Amino acid sequence: MFFGLLATALVAAGFAVRALAGVVQRRPEWVVVLVCVALAGALAHGRRRRRLSAARLARGATEVLEEATATALGALDVPPPAPSAGPAVTEPMPPAGEPRSLDHEALTPEEFEEAIAALCVRDGCSEVEVVGGAGDLGADVVALSPEGRRLVIQCKRYSEDNKVGSQDLQRFGGTCFTVHDADVALVVTTGDFTAPAEEYAEQCGIVCVNGAALLAWSDGLALVPWAAGAGEVGA
């Protein structure tokens, strides 16, 4: 009977150790806890019954070990408390109907040319190229409109108080059609045009896009400038 009880205790201890192996693998700190619990349980049984047999002592230690294992497994199954969610932070939205415009005046001249080219791509143009630079002869952006017309655009990133003058238009007018073969020539500025510049543009068939018209074009609130014909767009 002694050996039978001892064998039963050893088998139970084996199952407990196998379960503990999984616990220890996931939570190494439980090793110390379980050992302490097992020793405390064994000592408690020893105090209650000083004359315990070896078989009973082994069985008692096994029961304590199984109980500790069940406690550890239960602790692992309990999900950690979710962190308290703070107040949600949301970005303020602009009022309905308010356009979200790119600040073209904050761009460098090169970035401004890229922005105009991007508007052309957005509105269905193909073969869009930024060609501005030394020796560009007035052309900063060239493209084909959705209708197949060749667009030649000069970009003037000027401040609000710096207007595009007639000399600027004359230089561009001397090359946009004869050199660049433009079907539609456009001058786009973040500022405005002088009256003589507007007169020259109207005579030569150059489309002038001032800052207000650029803003409307960028926000999709106006026709594309190459569809407006000669003269100042948005005047």
Key traits:
single chain, 235 residues, alpha/beta, Trna Endonuclease, Chain: A, domain 1, six-stranded mixed β-sheet, 7 helices, 6 strands, 46% helix, 12% strand, membrane, plasmid, DNA binding, endonuclease
Detailed description of the structure:
- The protein has 235 residues and is of the alpha/beta class.
- It has two domains: 1-64, no CATH class; 109-219, Trna Endonuclease, Chain: A, domain 1 (3-Layer(aba) Sandwich).
- The chain is built from seven helices and six strands, in the order ααααβββαβαβαβ.
- It has helices at residues 2-26, 30-48, 54-77, 109-122, 166-173, 195-204, 211-218, and strands at 126-130, 141-144, 150-156, 184-189, 206-209, 231-233.
- Strands 1-2-3-4-5-6 form a six-stranded mixed sheet, sandwiched between helices.
- α1 packs parallel to α3 (54-77).
- The chain is elongated, with a radius of gyration of 42 Å.
- This is Restriction endonuclease.
- The chain crosses the membrane at residues 31-47.
- Keywords: Endonuclease, Hydrolase, Membrane, Nuclease, Plasmid, Transmembrane, Transmembrane helix.
- It holds the Pfam family Mrr_cat.
- GO terms for molecular function: DNA binding; restriction endodeoxyribonuclease activity.
Q: What is the second-level CATH architecture of the largest domain?
A: 3-Layer(aba) Sandwich
The percent of residues in helical segments reads 40-55%
Structural class: alpha/beta
Overall strand count? 6
Oligomeric state: single chain
- Low-confidence stretches are 48-54, 84-100
Enumerate how many helices there are, as a single number: 7
Domains counted in the coordinates: how many? 2
